[in-house]
Amino acid sequence: MTTTNRSTVSNAAANPLRALREHGQSVWLDFLSRRFIADGSLKRLVDEDGLAGVTSNPTIFEKAIAGGADYDVSVQDAQRRPGLDAVGLYERLAVEDIRRAADVLRPVYDATGGADGYASLEVSPGIAMDTEATVAEARRLAKTAARDNVMIKVPGTAAGLPAIRELTAEGVKVNITLLFSQSVYEEVAEAYLSGLERFVAGGGDPRRIASVASFFVSRIDAAVDTIIDERLSRAPGPGEREALAALRGKVAIANAKLAYRRYRRLFAGPRWQQLAARGARVQRVLWASTGTKNPAYSDVLYVEELIGPDTVNTMPPATVDAFRDHGQVRDSLERNVDEAERVMAALARLGVSIDAVTAKLTEDGVRRFTGDFDRLLAALERKRAG
After folding, report:
1. Is there a contact between 42 and 109 (Cβ–Cβ < 8 Å)?
2. At CB < 8 A and 24+ separation, what contacts does 138-142 make?
3. Domains along the chain with CATH numbers
4. Fewer Cβ atoms within 10 A, N terminus or C terminus of the chain?
5. What's the CA gap between 302 and 287, in Å, rounded?
6. CA distance 66 to 58
């Protein structure tokens, strides 16, 4: 986490990160490492910037564990435990970090009545297509972490949907990840609601349950812009060229705004009101992949345009620093929704299927996390052998 170029702020009101809370949005950090916790960096972000949570995934842990010597002592200590394979070793290291992060965030959890203050730990990506294995591992990780303010990340795949329903019904707090599609998001919200209803019917207190649906943003623009550039390289006619070029950097935000409109509809009406009357919490939309990938776009684009109530933005470290320095805070999420509809309609007219794009992004996301996880296990084997 870079902190050397931080802007000096005289008070909380001058800090754009803190100001987001006034608009209903929590800031989580999409980064975690042992050193980051141990040297006080995480606590400083909580105290100074109002950070309210952290998320992790196999890519983050691969960089943290394989990228230095911070975990070597723990790896060597684990050598004295017979029968602990590389997967078990990874889990041991990851759970230790998640527990420590959760402990730093516990005051936030207490102060917000359990709305914020979470650390998220993901199930193994290799079981993303296996419902039973996902449920079993998520259940076990939640028990092993043994912290009220830990969420278990489950991918929003076809196999993940029934797992979300089952885990919620059991009282496990779930962070659903790798969401790109509006229709899949709606299925995820439905799974949460169904699980919550089962939990309440079984005598559970819904005030204990919290969940977020992690809707990915910048990867949409990266994928669609690539398609646009390829189409432009075929030298289309002037009208088509202008129409294609006008969609660059517009689709991800439009897609997210329309997903949020679905959230507004789903968490309203008699069904939700019955749950809310018992103390149930909405499943907040969490904007993920909010680091800008195209240097031609603003480095705070996917924060500034998606600010609204009942949301979380989980930012990578560089985006945290950038938004603290020059972010502009305003209620933006429910503005220009008609324009978002026009963007998506124009995309369809030009023959680009958003459903095909989002399906491929989900597959690529699982594949990427699986590859990073495999590299992590290989690095742990090398550390153990060394």
Report:
1. no
2. 138/163, 138/167, 138/172, 138/174, 139/167, 139/170, 139/172, 141/91, 141/95, 142/172, 142/173
3. 18-385 (3.20.20.70)
4. C
5. 8
6. 11
From the candidates 153, 250, 257, 383, give the one annotated as an active-site residue: 153
259, 284 Cβ separation under 8 angstroms: no
CA pair distance 32, 102, nearest whole angstrom: 11
In one-letter notation, the amino acid at residue 168 is T
DSSP alpha helices (H): ranges in 238-289?
238-245, 251-266, 269-277
Task: Identify whether the C-beta of residue 303 lies closer than 8 Å to the C-beta of residue 315.
Answer: yes
Is the distance from CB of 217 to CB of 291 less than 8 angstroms? no
Task: Give the side-chain half-sphere CA count within 13 A for 237.
Answer: 3
Q: Residue 77 corresponds to which tokens in the numbers above?
A: 């200590």
173 is catalytic: no
Q: Model confidence over 264-280: pLDDT tens digits?
A: 999 999 999 999 999 99
pTM over 0.90: yes
Q: Which residue has the tokens 């909405």?
A: 282
| CA–CA distance, 208 with 286 (Å, rounded to integer) | 19
Query: Would you report the helix, strand and coil content of the chain in percent, each value rounded to 5?
Result: 60, 10, 30
Tens-digit pLDDT profile for residues 120-136: 999 998 898 999 999 99
